[in-house]
Structure formats: C-alpha cells, structure tokens
Amino acid sequence: MLFMILTRHSSVTITYLMNPIITDPTSLFRPGSRLGQVLPTYEYRPQQEEMASHVWHALTTGSNLAIEAGTGIGKSLAYLVPAVTWVIKTRKRVAVSTYTRLLQSQLINQDIPLVRKLIPDLPKVAVAYGQENYLCRFRLRSRLARGLFDTRQEAATASRLLDWAETTTQGILLNYPHPLPAKLWHRICRDPTTCRRNDCPYFSDCFYYRARRNWEKSAMLIVNHSLFFAGLAAETELLPKMDAVIFDEANRLEDACVRHFGIRVSQRRLSQILDYICPVAGRGLIHALAHQAGIVENIEKEVGFCRNELLNFFQETESLLGPDAIRLRLKQPLQAVPVSALNRLSASLNKTARDADDEHLASELKGTARKLEDTANSLTEFMDLDTENAVQWVERTGANNINLISAPLDIAHKLKELVYPGFTSTIMTSATLTVADEFGFISSRLGLDQFKTLQLDSPFDHGHNSLLFVANKIPPPNHPDFNQAGAKLIQRILKASHGRALVLFTSYDMMNRVRNLIPQHSYTHLYQGELPVAQLLQQFRNDTHSVLFATQSFWQGIDVPGESLTCLIICRLPFEVPDDPRLTAIAEQLRKQRIDPFNTYQVPTAVLRFRQGFGRLIRTKKDRGVVCVLDRRILDRGYGNSFLKSLPKELPLTTSFNQVVRFLRKVDNPDI
Ligand code: SF4
After folding, report:
1. Is the CB of 369 under 6 A from ligand 1?
2. 206 Cβ closer than 6 Å to some ligand 1 atom
3. Which of 154, 185, 316, 321 has a Cα-to-Cα distance from 609 of 20 to 30 A?
4. From the alpha carbon of 197, which atom of ligand 1 is closest?
5. Confidence of residue 5 (pLDDT cuts 50, 70, 90)
6. Distance CA 426, CA 58 (A)
7. Cβ contact 514:487 at 8 Å
8. Cα(376)–Cα(42) distance, rounded to whole angstroms?
9. In the chain, what are the domains?
10. Phi, psi (5° rounding) for residue 38?
11. Which pLDDT belongs to residue 14?
C-alpha cells in the first residue's frame, strides 16, 4: 500500500510517496532480488552488499563512515539505495557530492533511473550545478537588445541560444547541443553580482531560481564538492539544509577544500573583467553608453588607469620569477599592490550605475564593481601572508598570466569544524583511500578520527586479467639517459601491444621530451592539450589502436573500458614536484613536529595518485591488460614497497619483457 506524507523540514516541504515494504535495503543486492530483474548486467557481488549494509548502518545510527570500494563493486548503487531508503523512512534530506560533473551526470542519468526501478516511489532527486552553469535570460536578452556582442557570429550564436532558451527546461550549459565559446557564455550565465533576483522580469521563469526551488523540494541532491563548499560559505543559503552527506570521489576532497578556502587572484581574470567594460578591441559594456560621451570618456580614463596599475604590478611580480621559474613562494609581502586602483574603478562604476537609466547596464556595472571590490579584498587578505596556516606563492601560467595563490595547509580541522558537525552522518567513499591497506594517511588529511573505516577489494580477477611489469633494466628517472631509454622501451611495448595504450607522465615537460623521441609509425598518437579532453577520449576509445600520451588529470577519473586501453604505461612514480609551495610548507610543518615528511606525506600522496593511475586499466570484468612501470625505484627503493603493497594482492609482477609479450599475445588469442 502506498501513502503520501508531507513533511516540513528546514522550512521546506518535501513530498514523499512512501513504500513501507523496504525495511532493509541491503536485501536488494542479494541473489534473486529485484536488482537482478531491473539490471540486465546484474551479478551478485558480496562487496556491494557489504557496502550497502555499512552505509545503511551509518545512516540509521547517525555515524560517520569511510569506505574504500575497489573498482567494479558498483559503489554508486551501494550508497544510493540505502540513502534513498533512509530519506523515505526518516523524511530527511541527503546530499551526494562528487568531484566531477561527469559523475554527477552519470548518477542522475544512469544510476538514479535504475534506483527508481528498484524503489518506484522514490522521492524527488535533483542535480545541482554551480550557478555559472545556468543561462540568465535577463542578461542574454539585454545584451541582444543592446547589440553588445563583439562580432556578427557571436550575435548569431546568442540568437540561437535565445531559441534554445525557449525549448530547454533546465537552461544548463552542459545540455547545450552546440559548441559555445567560454567568453560568450560568461557574459550571459547567471552571475550573483549582476542578478536582479525578485526585481528581474524573468524571475518566475529563471532557470537558476527554478532549479533552486526544485532543490528545495528534493529529498536527495546531487552536488559537486566545489558547490558543496560554496553552499557552506554562502551568506544566504545557496543549497537547502541537508541532514547527511555522502562524498563520492572523496580522494579529491582535499583538492576541492584547498581551492575553496584558498585565495587566487589571476592577472588574466582581471584583464577579462576590465575588457568586459571597456575592451582594447571589440564592444564592451561601454558601447551601451555611446550616447553619453562624457560618461564614456570618464570610464575609459578610469579603466585605462587601472589597467596600467595592474600591468605595472604584474610585471614587477613576474620579474621576481626571473626568466625561467614557474613559481615562487612568498616570504615577504609584494610591493605596490593595486588595491586602491581597483577600489577607485569600482567606486566610479558604482556611481555611473546609480545615474544610469538602463537597468541592465546598471546591474552589469554594479556587478563589475563588486567583482573589482572582491578582488581588492582578496589582494588585501593575500598580503597578510598568514604563513602559520597557509602558504602563498606567485606562479606563471602561459603568456601574460601571473596568479597569486594562497592555499591553506591543514584541511582536517576545517572539515572537523565546518562540515562533519553539521550532519548526522558523513560518508566518504572512493576506489582509493588507503595506502598499503591503511587509512592512516587519508584520515590525517581529512580528519577522519571519528569515522569507522572499511576496505572492500575490487571483484575483478587481477591475478588472471592483468600483469604488472617493472622495467628494472633502464636507468631511474633522475638519470640523464632515462628519457632516451624510456622512449625506446615505450616503442617496444607499443609494438607488442599494437598501440592500445595510455602513456602517463608526471609533467607536460617530460611528456613533450619523450614524445619527440618516439616516431609515429602505425598507430595514431594523441596528446593531451592538443584537443579538448572529451574529444581526445572519444578518439582514443573509437580508434582502438591509438596511443594516448597524457599527464595530470588523466591519472584519475577517466573511464576507457575495453580493448582501447590494453596497456597502461606509467613513466614515473607520481611524486609531487619538490618545489610545489604547498608541499614544501607542509613538509616544513611536519619537520617542526619531528615527523619525516617524505615517508608520512610525499610517499602516501604519490601512492594514492599511483593507485588512481593503475585503476585506469581494468574497468570491467572482461578487461585484460598490462601495466608497465618504467620507474625502477618501485623495486630498488624502500618506499617502493608502499606502492606495491597498495596494488591488488593477486596481481602478478614481472621484470621480464618477454613475459609481457607472451601475456599480450594471450590477451589477443586466449586459446594459445
Ligand atoms: S533572476 Fe537573476 S539569474 Fe534569473 S534571469 Fe533574472 S537576472 Fe538572470
């Protein structure tokens, strides 16, 4: 029998259609259960049942839990099913937070429909993206009406967007079916500094506010880590109140937290703000004031002054780096920081906004003034150089761009103070949380001392389906001959694997040096940075024998099941670069406490990243392949054991290249 409950929670109304039959969600994972009927690829996985049981227990007892769920367990369902059962029973609200939007959309588009088949009376589940992902009808229409686009092509694209706005229900960038320049989107997306809220003529129809009303009515909200933290910090409630939170991709929580609580002032971003009003070429906001020559002249003068001050400041800052350095840790405050120039321009724009009789123009001017003010405040905060709790540095990224960055060192206490006490249960999960089977490292980084921990192995048959090859006959990576020897070996491996390989580097520099030593013969070579990530991955999947050379983001989160990724080559153990300012500052702190930073921080950080890289190889039960590690330190050095002990126990290890060749032959001809 179904019945409906209306409940008030956190001053909102959520509608629950409650099915009283499900009392133990764990039972849904057992053989012969309903999951087998609704999921064609269902197979019983005891680890999945165990995970679901622990998630259910944590939610119902109000406790905290960290679960490492090896690849292939089916962890999304193992937390979603208990979580929705819990919200049905308790009439509370749960957040599921992921690091990537990719996983957010996978959860809402693939997993939740499946859960709905299992539990037909599922209460509302919504996905929430950051506000800049929603189209702002007011900005789009206002810019079109005033001809505020730089080129005819831009204006034509904006008109197409207007048509799309009439048909789309959500107005989310992710759903727009055509390529869209980022610069254009940023001018027409929801921007909190320009939004007119209740005064907006499109308020009742606004995509963003409609989404927010939807979030309020939802019992489960799928967010991402960065929105989650923004929601915590927002003065007005950005997200509805949640009772419990499940962090998937919890291994990335520290990154998200550091970004959120840190400061970043970017030269490029500041130039974009100034260009938005008064560009060097093209039409800025100022174009809408063309009929008021005096005002235009004044704004041009103020923007010009600010631009000069910024240019001088960033040139001065860049000179500290010299011609070659990429980043420099700051121990002394920078000189001539242009705070007053930013505030002066901000005041001038606010004054013009007050006098403007055009409401679009007024809100855009005020919004820009607010951004300049916020940047001035960030600069002031940055100059405090809080070296106890954070580290500050300048870095060069590409031509004409200097970033000023401040990053907090200790995230654990922030999470313990600001996150965990706000929820009855906090659940963390990821395929990689342990180092050599221990939770100690992640626990110290994320402050998990009040968490129960559980490690569940991957159900994949690594003993039979994969092989680990360590190249112990080439020099170690710090040897001058390494690149040459590594490139030769990569060619031999690619010949044996017939392409079908992902080659992972630890830096673009290393990738570029090695790729130049590898002639492109029979197989297509793809390089990170030469195409957008999604396109690159699509080509890599479609062209089975292609070889993808990549670094950084490709160590984690990419999913290429099947033959295209038969061989994974890890060129170097992924230690952070030794001059990374945050790493250096954390190491100093640890040394002060008489703790060895290498073994307690650098090695575990590298092991977790290495495990993420390793996890790219076997994505399904049918996948077979070889991982080639070209860094012999994994065998030669004492710390190598931490890496090896963190891999599946049954994984065979060889140093014989012939065995790799034999293994790959067998992959292609299982009968030999
Ligand atoms: S309410 Fe704000 S975000 Fe929505 S259409 Fe209006 S100005 Fe844009």
Report:
1. no
2. yes
3. 321
4. 1
5. very low
6. 8
7. yes
8. 55
9. 3-124+423-456 (3.40.50), 134-205 (no CATH), 263-408 (1.10.275), 462-668 (3.40.50.300)
10. -95, -15
11. 53
Please give the full DSSP string across 461-487, using - where no structure is assigned.
Answer: -HHHHEEEEE-TTS--TTSTTHHHHHH
* Contact in structure between 566 and 626 (CB atoms under 8 Å): yes
CA of 544 to the centre of ligand 1 (A): 46
8 three-class SS: strand
* Residue of 132, 162, 190, 207 to mutate, ligand 1, most atoms within 8 A of C-beta: 190
Give yes or no for residue 609 CB within 6 A of ligand 1. no
Which tokens hold the place of 465?
């389906």
What Å distances lie between residue 449 and 123, 244, 250, 416, CA to CA? 33, 18, 15, 10
pLDDT in tens, 579-623: 899 999 999 999 999 999 999 999 999 999 999 999 999 998 899
235: Cα separation from own chain's centroid: 24
Which tokens go with 503? 């080659």
- Ligand 1: does its nearest atom lie under 6 Å from the Cβ of 212? no
List, for residues 237-284, the tens digit of each pLDDT value: 789 999 999 999 999 999 999 999 999 999 999 999 999 988 887 778
Rounded to whole angstroms, how far apart are CA atoms 556 and 559? 9
Task: Please give the ipTM for the structure prediction.
Answer: 1.00
What kind and span of H or E run contains 165?
helix 152-167
The token duo for 213 is 């009303």
Q: Is the CB of 210 under 6 A from ligand 1?
A: no
Cα 315 to middle of ligand 1, angstroms: 38
